[in-house]
Structures are given as structure tokens and as C-alpha cells.
DNA sequence: GATGAATGAGTTTTCATTCAT
DNA sequence: GATGAATGAAAACTCATTCAT
């Protein structure tokens, strides 16, 4: 509702901000935080350097804003995926599919995102990540609730703690996405979510 | 064999090199590649800056050497773990245990290692990682062979491609190690490797 | 006369100008020329930056106008003090009193004023001060005339050239004002002008 | 003694430092702190900018060192002048002469020095001056002791507090030096110190 | 006429790397 | 062979000024 009430001026500002963030995203994913200069970002975005500093108080602020915005979008999409089914198994299927499509659509950000959630955020002094990490943590707990509910309702066996299962599933998805990222042709992200889920669902052991 | 033939001079050189790498490792893990200067490394290692450049042609070379050396140690230990049993399940147990102990003993490097294998190596221009990645890839194939053999020998069900299973197992271990890294107390890495392996071994589904 | 003929428009303009100068004065005395930005001045004066530039063609012009205006007020008050008595000694008493009260009432400007008349006007490129200095020089000559007249009328001994005496008296007043500026409590500016004048009037030597 | 024990390396360093300070002094006195860039100083001193930063941790540090060094030299010379006579009047004569010669020999610094002791040190954030001011204050007290002793020994009349007399004498000297600074030809600093001292010594009044 | 968004030259500072001693 | 002083390119950031609305 209120989003519509933006004045032309405000809409213009928002558009500029998006252009700056887009340019920064491109450059950061290409070269990494420390190998991109503010001048480069300004140039790519086709703004003067001073204008960049009108929108973001410094380089770190720009980076933070970028990461936070993307993380928000991802978590929103994934959380929504978990809500769009009643059946726990279906929720997980939705999640695996959503994770794939969201990430594949946003390939350039993935590396940045991983650098901040898991992996080493050496890009930036410190403390930046805490907010992102926390958000990620919260999502893992939401995912764990699906496993917990499935176990309570006797649909799943309790082969591990729900949180551990959430971590396991998420990390497997990430791993597949990395394979895809590095070589999309020989390692496509599975269309059928069950290919991933079966790693958890079907026991490996023949007994 | 030939390793033993090092002259005193050569042994001394090697020792110096190790000291430099150790100092660099400490600093890089504390502050990240871009927040560490060559001067700092030289000072911590108690060598002159010029001497550092006698051993490594530039900062990137130093970093690469460091990461490569550590990655070698890790992969050696993990590969050895896979060889120290005949039974496939036992191999995997060894692997999960070895991964845990090696990483936990080398906590400071883990972040750097992850940044380079999985995750985003933005630290360095580009191309650095290719060698490390390749080495990692090779290891995953070795791990995959264990699954393949287990499947061929009908000990494991083929719930996914062996390579995918390798990726899945490794990523779950990584995920558990991250949890431990962030909060060792509430997320200890399981003593019993079956806790991790069961996620693959026991199917989740009740049917 | 012609001052009264200002149209409402003109009076309004003058008021705005005064507000801008007042804001600038506050900021310059607080932080010094180079540590104050035009934006800051505009903000404090509650005008848009563009409006500021309608009134003053650049930062230096604003500063010059400010200093000139204040210097005018000071010199006017001091010149008037010299005129308000017939007796030379009384003139000097008036001057010492006026200098004290004018400066103390305008404490914030004093430092700026000193920086420009005596002391180092490093604030601004160069040449700014010439006008101010000249005005100050003119005043010193006016003050020297009082000494000259006193000497001619045999009221004063000619212990030095009139101009030198003027310089001496003025510098002693300044010195006392500095003492007061730095620590008003332990160094009050003397109520009784003779305390300062006696330094010239009574010879120090016992003979 | 120990000054002689400087190694060639140390002497070389000291010489470089002096060259840098000399270049900085020239530029600061020509254009003022804020109108001089570190690049300019480096260029004038014929060093690379990085070398400048090896000697001074930042621009402010360079400025402080410069001012402090000069202030030290001045105060040393003036204090020594006060010690080189037993008779109070002779001490003051020495002081007036020393002040003249020291300042005239160091004309370029005078403005900077005044800016920091009396006058408006807006050049630098804050706190810089406190040290210089304190040193100046100490000197004034030393000068006041001469007046005090002269008064106690009945050589001087107590026409004002000793500290006030010190302030007065110093400010008169400063004023004469300013006249000289602005126009050396028409306002030479008096060869004969009594010309200045008589302003205090001989009473102005004919009675 | 007033506004304030946009500009970009210019500033301080860091640090990888070289090379004379 | 080791040293560390010297280098200078390049980075982040500021702010006086302009000009389209």
C-alpha cells in the first residue's frame, strides 16, 4: 500500500540506489570486496563518486546493504516455500526446489552470500556478518521445525536431532549448488527435489 | 629418499620457510588476507621484509603456498583415513572421524580452507583457487569410489550417484564443523561418526 | 538616510544575510575556517546551500564579509571611544575600556579577529587580510594621533614615537584580553583602565 | 656528549627529518596548514610521500613536531638570554635583543609560532596547542620572576603585577616584531633594546 | 527565486615491492 | 645473502560549487 505512495523523487532515488547496488554486486562477485574500488563502482553505475557516498556512508555500508538486501530476498523466498504446503515432505520438496531456483537465478550473489553465511567472511573487518548469520540461523530453526513436526507426527524417523537434519539438508543443497556453480553442465541442480531428499529419506544401508 | 639428502643449508631454509608460513597463517586467520600486510608477516616471523620476498615472489604467492600446504596436509590425512580399513562403512567412519580431528586441531586454518574450497575466495584476484579446487575435486572422487565400491558390493543402496553421495557426506561434515566452529559448546562435533553417517544410512522415511 | 529607503524585499534580504553570517560566525569560531563546510553553514542558518551561494560568491567571500563586518564594528566602537573626550588621557582611558567591553561582549569573534589582524591568517589563501590589516593600520594611526597630541601639548613625555606608543598600548590590551580569554577567572580584564595605562604612564624605574 | 655518538645511519636520518621539516615549514608559512598537501611537502623535500609517512605518522604529527621544535629553540634562546646577566635591567635588555634576533632570523616561523601561542590556532583540531601554550606560559613566569626580583630589590617600582609586566613586555616586543614583519624598512626592530624597555621604564606622564 | 542533488578534483594515507648497502 | 629504507601507485573519502527543476 504505502509503497505506492512514493513520490516521483523518491522512486527515482530508489532506482538510483538499485543501480548502484547492481553495479556493486556485479563487481564484488567478479573480483571480491577488496579488489573493487569505490571509483570502479561509481563508474560502472554511471554516477559520480560523490553521489555514491550520498547513498552509502562508506564502502562497508554499501557492502552490508547489498548483502542484507539479497539475504532478505533469499530467506523470504525460502521461508515462503516452507509455508506453501501442509505435508512436511512437501514442504521440504518446496524448499529444495525454491533454494535451487532462487540461487540459480541469482548466481552472481551466491558466492557473496556463502562468504557471509558459511565460509569465511574475511572481506570485511568484523561484525558485519553477525546480522546475516543470525538471520540464517533463524531460518535453520524454521527448517528444523519442519523436521520436528514430521518426527512428532511419525512421518519421519528420528535419525538425528531436527536442527542437525536441517543443517544436513541445507548443506547438501548448498553442495549441489556449488557443483552447479562450478560446472553447470556436468553438475546440473536436480529438477526433481527427491534426488536430494532421498539422500536423507532412503537409508543408504542394505539391511 | 631424496628428502633426506637435504644439506644443512637447505634444512635451515626449509625451517625459515615454515616459520614464515606459520606467522602468515596466524595473521591471515586472525584478520583475513587483505587486512594483513607483508610487513606484519615479516615482523611476526622475525625476518626482514626482503627475506620474505626471497622466499615468496609476492603476497599472493605466499598465500597460495600457505593454503596449498595446508590443503595437502588435510587431504593426505583424509585420504589415509579412507585407506585404513577394508570395509566401506569403516572407511567412511574413519573419514568422518579424521575430518573432525584434523579440522578441530587446525581450527584457525579452517576458515581459510573453506574460503578456498567451498565458499568464496574473494581474497585473491582469481585463479588461485583452481589448483586447490582441483585437489579437492580429486579427493571427492576418491571418496566417491568408496560409495561406488559399497554399492557394487551390495553393501549400500544406490540412493544417488556415488559422487553425489560423496559431496553430500562431505558437506554434512563441513556443516557440523561450522556449527562447532561458531559455538563449540552447544554444537560439539559428534564423537561417534555414526551420528553423522546415519543421516545417510538410515532412511528418514517411515515406510 | 538612504538606509531607511530599503524596500521590504531588501530588508528581508539583509536579514537573511545576517542570519547566514551569524551561523557562519558561530561555526568558524567553534571549529576554524577549514573545519567548517558550506553545507554546515547552510544547515545551521536554515537555508539551502544554493541560497548561500546567492549571497556569497564562495566560501572565502563569505569569510571575508564576516570578518570585515566584525572588524568594522570594532573599529567604529574604538574610534568613537577616542572621540568621546577632549583630554588625551581620558581618550586613552575610554579606549582601554571600550576595547575590553567590545571584545568581551564578542568573545567568539576575538580569535578570528586576532587571527586576521595580528597573528597568522592561515585560514585562507592569502591577500584576504590586506583590507583588514589596512583598516587596523588606519586605526593605529588614529590612536597615534592621540599620543602625538598629548606630547605636543606637553601632557606626555615623548618616551617613544607616537605610532610605537599606539602599537604598544594596543598590544598590551590585546595581551590582557588573551589572558582573560584563556582563563577569565584568574585573569580578569581590569575594570580600571589605569591599571593598563599605568604600565605606560608610570615609569618602571626607580630613579 | 651522547649527541656525538650518533651513527652515520642515525645522523642521516636526522638530516632527512630536518629536510622534511624545513620543506614543511616553508610551505606552511607560505600557505597555511590546510592549504598544503602532504604530497606538496614530500615534493618540496624531494622525498617520496611514503618516506614522509615513515618519519611522521600523519600530517598533524608533522605539524606538531615542527611547531614544538621551533618553540623549543625560541624558548631556550630566550631563557638563556635571561640567565646571562645578574642585573635585572640587563636581563631584560638581553631578552629584548634575543627576541629580536631569534625572531628575525626565523621570520618564516614567526607567523606559525604566533598562531599557536597567541592568536588563533584553528589549523588543527584541538589539543595541539595546549603543550605549546603551556611552554609559553612557563616562559612568561620565568620572565615575571625577573620583574619580581627587580621590584623586591627596589630597582623597579611595582607599577603592576610582575606577571602582567611580563605579559606587557612580551606583547610589546611581539607588536614591534609584527611591524617589522609587515614592513621591515619603515619599521625596523630597534637595535637598542632601551627603545622598547623605556616604554615601560620611563613613565609617560609629565608630572 | 530558492532548492539540494549531483559532481569530481583533490586530500590523506597505506602497503606491496624494489634495490642499494 | 640478508636487510629495511625508500618508493609511488592506488585507495577511501570530502566538500566547494554548479545547475536543472
Automatic annotation (TrEMBL), chains A, B, C, D:
Keywords in UniProt for this one? Coiled coil, DNA-binding
Q: Which domain of life is it from?
A: Bacteria
An example molecular function term from Gene Ontology annotations: DNA binding
Report the DNA-binding ranges.
37-56
Q: Which residues form a coiled coil?
A: 68-98
PROSITE patterns on file:
HTH_TETR_2
Q: Which residues belong to any copy of the HTH tetR-type domain?
A: 14-74
| Gene3D superfamilies in UniProt | Homeodomain-like (1.10.10.60), Tetracycline Repressor, domain 2 (1.10.357.10)
- The name under which this protein is listed is Transcriptional regulator, TetR family
Amino acid at each position: 500500500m504505502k509503497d505506492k505512495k512514493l513520490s516521483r523523487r523518491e522512486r527515482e532515488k530508489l532506482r538510483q540506489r538499485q543501480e548502484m547496488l547492481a553495479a556493486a554486486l556485479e563487481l564484488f562477485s567478479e573480483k571480491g570486496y577488496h579488489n573493487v574500488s569505490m571509483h570502479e563502482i561509481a563508474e560502472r553505475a554511471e554516477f559520480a563518486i560523490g553521489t555514491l557516498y550520498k547513498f552509502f556512508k562508506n564502502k562497508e555500508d554499501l557492502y552490508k546493504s547489498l548483502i542484507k538486501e539479497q539475504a532478505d530476498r533469499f530467506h523470504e523466498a525460502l521461508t515462503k516455500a516452507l509455508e506453501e504446503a501442509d505435508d512436511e515432505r512437501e514442504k521440504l520438496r518446496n524448499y529444495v526446489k525454491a533454494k535451487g531456483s532462487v540461487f540459480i537465478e541469482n548466481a552472481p550473489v551466491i558466492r557473496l552470500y556463502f562468504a557471509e553465511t558459511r565460509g569465511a567472511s574475511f572481506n570485511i573487518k568484523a561484525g558485519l556478518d553477525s546480522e546475516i548469520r543470525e538471520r540464517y540461523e533463524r531460518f535453520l530453526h524454521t527448517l528444523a521445525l519442519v523436521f520436528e513436526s514430521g518426527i512428532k507426527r511419525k512421518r519421519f524417523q528420528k535419525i538425528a536431532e531436527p536442527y542437525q537434519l536441517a543443517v544436513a539438508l541445507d548443506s547438501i543443497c548448498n553442495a549441489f549448488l556449488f557443483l552447479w556453480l562450478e560446472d553447470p553442465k556436468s553438475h546440473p541442480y536436480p529438477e526433481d527435489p527427491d534426488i536430494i531428499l532421498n539422500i536423507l529419506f532412503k537409508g543408504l544401508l542394505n539391511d
